[in-house]
Amino acid sequence: MSMLNQRLIVISGPTATGKTDLGAALALSVNGEVISADSMQIYRGMDIGTAKPTAEEMRGVPHHMIDVADPGETWSVARWADMAAAAAEDILARGRQPIVVGGTNQYIDALLSGTDFAAAGDAALRAALGAEYDDLGGDAFRAKLAAVDPERAAKLAPGDKKRLVRALEVYTLTGETITSHDRRTRLAPPRFGSLRFALTYDCRETLYRRIRQRVDRMEERGLFEEVEALLRRGVPPESTAMQAIGYKEAAAALRGECSRAEALEAVKTASCRYAKRQLTWLRRDAALHWLPRETYPDTASAMGQILLSLRQEAT
To answer: Is the residue at 3 inside a domain?
Structure first.
């Protein structure tokens, strides 16, 4: 039995804060295994641009949810959460501690909450509704949604095609509005208990500098060559995997739409914006234990604070 008694340890935080190293070190200390919560590390062959941990960085610790998908596949949050939950349950059943490590916060929340996501989705229906939106226009399409789900329609702008279409898709497939579904799932107990930590830098410019340096290292390790190899293998440029930060920009450079230097600068800008969004998401979690790098500058000090919190939780 883990010291958290069937609960998951989560190590989150914005990109380039050292989550991978801390996760592996903690796993070695608490008889744990890592579940990667990174929406792009699931794809085989996408190693450099996703900062996927190397065998050396894994330090012999089993890592789950890495290299489980082909880059041409599209994975939903629900599919990832179901597979990650099965991994967590297996780890717990073997008397070990699951440690969720990554920066895709929507995935982490889905894993912990067990939200059923209303409906898996229907590509043909979604395309038909999208075409209907284009024909009717945003105002008329939103009025159609308002006839069945006035509360959700009131929250969405006429130009928010994606969410308007999704709301009507769910209602058509299930007969339940998204408003009703969200209200019901908020009342449901979580799938897993958890103790959650987040690495960060109090100084935003320090974080951004580290992100820019990491992008430079990716280029040195062969980011453009990795993207070129994926495209040569036939991975569609419009696939979800190729829209990831780093891959989309590198592909544009390979097509001659910009220089490599311009692509790298775009990757740095997009990565810093992503880090800002990650922090905004995390600040909503009042139970989160923050680990600022100014206070915990290395893996040993951060792990020491986590182990202290674990002992306090166990008493």
So the answer is: no
pLDDT digits (tens, 9 = 90+) for 62-99: 999 999 999 999 888 889 999 999 999 999 999 999 99
Residues with Cβ < 8 Å from 110, sequence gap 6 or more? Answer: 77, 78, 80, 81, 117
Closest to 37 measured CA to CA, from 91, 84, 70, 82: 84
Residues 199 and 277 in one domain: yes
Instruction: Spell out, as residue ranges, where the chain has pLDDT lower than 70.
Output: 1-5, 115-121, 185-188
Residue 210 to residues 18, 127, 219, 244, 273, Cα–Cα distance (Å): 10, 41, 14, 19, 13
pLDDT in tens, 289-298: 999 999 999 9
Residue 281 lies in a domain: yes
pTM summary value: 0.83
Measured CA to CA, the distance from residue 279 to residue 178 in angstroms comes to: 26
Domain that holds residue 136: 123-187
Cβ distance 41 to 297 under 8 Å? no
Q: Look at the chain and report how many structural domains it folds into.
A: 2
For the purposes of burial, counting CB atoms within 10 Å of the CB of 307, is it exposed (0-12), middle (13-18) or buried (19 or more)? Answer: middle
